[in-house]
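Example 3.2
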Amino acid sequence: MFMEMGDFSSGKKNRLFWILSGLAAGLLVLGVLTAVFLPLWVTRWLGGDQFRQLASQQLSILLKTEGELQPLEWSSFTVFSGGFTSRPDSPGPWLWEVRELRTEISPRLLLDRILRFPEISIGELSLTPGTQPTLVPFEKPASVPAEKTSSDLFRDVQIGTVEIRSIQCKPSAASAGWGVQGLQISAQPSKQQTDFHLRGGEIMTPFSWLGNIQLGGAKGRYTDPTVFLTSLDAKSPAGGMLQLSGEYTPGPTPRAQGRATWDGWSIPGGKIGVGLFDISARMSGEFVLQEIRQGGPVGQGQVRLVDARLEPGPGSETILGLLAALTGEPRLRGCPLNTAQAKWSMQPGLYDVSSIVAEAPGLLRAVGQVRITGQSLSGQILLGLERNLGSKVNALSGGECFQREENGYLYETISLSGTLENPQNDLKAKLTSAIARTAVRTGAQILEKAAGSQGGGDAAKAAGQILNSLFGAPPR
């Protein structure tokens, strides 16, 4: 009896062993089949139109546009696409053209339902303004019922790093006049913000005094919809150095604040002046951007000119030449300036340049302020000549010009007017009129003495006619 019970127990264990062995073999076969056919199925699905449409939808939401990916080419979990292009009628703020898009997708996407892109590389990115050039909240397009099941497959989309080898964006109203070309960027996006690092390329700016700059490097972050620029180092084609920082929020009423400092920067056009004289130099200084109003930026700064030299400018050739002739000092036609600086502020359509100081010690000194409204020019400059030189002009003008003495200079107040293209000043008229009156009086006296009491009136009249032909009729 005991033997029968032992045989029954042994047979039960054998059957259990074979059942478990069969299950293990089945699982092994299922695992092998899964390992063989699941990647094939996943790869086929990932390369199909359904996944491409889903990826296009996710990318459109990320870029605030509407567009389509070109066909995907898969190699294991690495995918390549010719690019992504916004539809011309996309309602977003920008139209995107992405070329040579390559990335990897995490093989766990079917297990954790998170679509992961560890690194995305882009060959070239071009931006043009869309149908809504201001940044507005982008509404996700409604999905058709057939796509809902596929969309629900993913709980989240995560991107590790985005590398772009070249970015192109022409200046436009949508970019507030800024543009870039040949720019490289590395970005690490997240739900809260996107950190970025820029390298190389050229930046087109909306400021004529700044011009285009060659980027060395920049760091910052983007927290929708504001761009925060932590630091930017750049240089001009001529070698000037520039540093920028600040923030910018686009929209119907854009907001911006920032600071710029520069050293050894070339003056736009090579010279700076107000019609009375021009100064060729390089400039250093700083500018604080306070806000952006409709029509342009608002801010203030100061500038210092380096290696400055006084030269004849529009409307001043006659003035400098006349002063040089009257004083016998050829340096007035062109001389180095030891000091040349000013403060300035700007707002849409208006530039105020104040605290102007330009000095060549022992020769001349100019102080004053200038206002530029649109293309119109106005202002006042106090021009001082060294005491001996100013005394010569004062004597020749009958004591009418360069009368006030201060710190070794004789000063004359000059009013500026006209336009940037045709600047005017009243110094020439003052000098010629005063000298004409002095010359007429002096010439008449000399001729009267030479001619005696008889005929003196005719001699004075003749002298006046000769001097009038040289200087014009003196005002009464």
